[in-house]
Amino acid sequence: MSSIVINPLTKAELQDFINSQNHALGIVGGAGFGKAAIIGWMLRQYLPKAPADITNYPYLKYITEEKGIISIDVIRDLRKFLKLKIPGQVALQRFVVIDHADNITLPAQNALLKTLEDPPAGTLLILSLNNELSVISTIRSRLQLIHLKRPARAEVINYFVEQGHLKPEIDRAYLMSGGLVGALAGLLENEDSGIQSIVEEAKQVLKSSLFDRLAMVDGMAKDKVRCQTLFKMIIQIAQSGLETTAARGDKAAILRWQRVINAAYQAEVSSTNNVQPKLVLTNLMLSL
């Protein structure tokens, strides 16, 4: 039974990075892509003899957001961790994973940059990013960026069948999640996660009337980060719908999903360029 399902091209890129023994990696993919599982798989390639719960490996540090940010104090604490000596002669023995790295404050990014400019020996830093543009260009230039790709639908379904799930349930969850493995797993396991709520919100947007969509704008516009994740989720759901309708040859549905993908993509670009969230959302709702 496979431990994880990864797009073959993505897996090849990850394996090339592992073989290169480089010191800084950015894993880029929207919410629901299963970045945490992929990072866990990578760490296992480096640490085949690590404890069953890899978080118990003494030279592994996980950092994540607190109250929506990763502060400069957290990065300063990381730098203390990186000064500790580690025994042995293996090329890479110490690992730092920064989850939700999109939420590193600017002062914290500048502090992290100093570490990336002069990386400690034997250390790998992995940043998990929804959007690479959320970190400053000088950090991006020091990361090898790998953009995650969705596995083929057949691979995803076979994987979850191997995990003991029923195919009708997998098919339904696939459509709900847009084929995003992390979101799909959460739906099948009935996990109470933020991803599921965004999936449901994206579905609600897609099935609502124009009047109801426009009524959602004010509430949604209050959370720019959630909006950006919503745009990505709408794109993924629409791409899944496009695959299904293309197989049936339904021309009207194909055109509709293409329109949705284009509208959500334009919303994502506008949001990245700091256009006012309310305006971005209004344009999106009018275009769906």
Can you tell me about this structure?
- It is a single chain.
- The protein has a five-stranded parallel sheet with strand order 2-3-4-1-5, sandwiched between helices.
- With about 290 residues, the chain is an alpha/beta fold.
- It has 13 helices and five strands.
- It has two domains: about 10-145, P-loop containing nucleotide triphosphate hydrolases (Rossmann fold); about 190-285.
- α7 packs across α11 (about 225-250).
- The longest helix is centred in the C-terminal third of the chain and has 25 residues, at about 225-250.
In short:
The protein has 13 helices and five strands. With 288 residues, it is an alpha/beta fold. The longest helix has 25 residues.
Q: Please give the number of β-strands.
A: 5
Across the major sheet, the strand order is 2-3-4-1-5
Q: What is the highest CATH level, the class of the largest domain? A: Alpha Beta
The CATH homologous superfamily of the largest domain? P-loop containing nucleotide triphosphate hydrolases
CATH architecture of the largest domain: 3-Layer(aba) Sandwich
* Backbone CA Rg: 20 Å
Unreliable runs, pLDDT <50, ≥5 residues? Answer: none
Strand content: 5-15%
Series of H and E elements: HEHEHEHEHEHHHHHHHH
Instruction: List the domain count as a whole number.
Output: 2
Q: In terms of structural class, how would the helical and strand content be classed?
A: alpha/beta
The helix count comes to: 13
Largest sheet: 5 strands, parallel
Summarize model confidence as the mean pLDDT. Answer: 89
Looking at the structure, the CATH topology of the largest domain is Rossmann fold
Distance between the termini: 40 Å
- Principal-axes shape call: globular
Percentage of residues assigned to helices = 55-70%
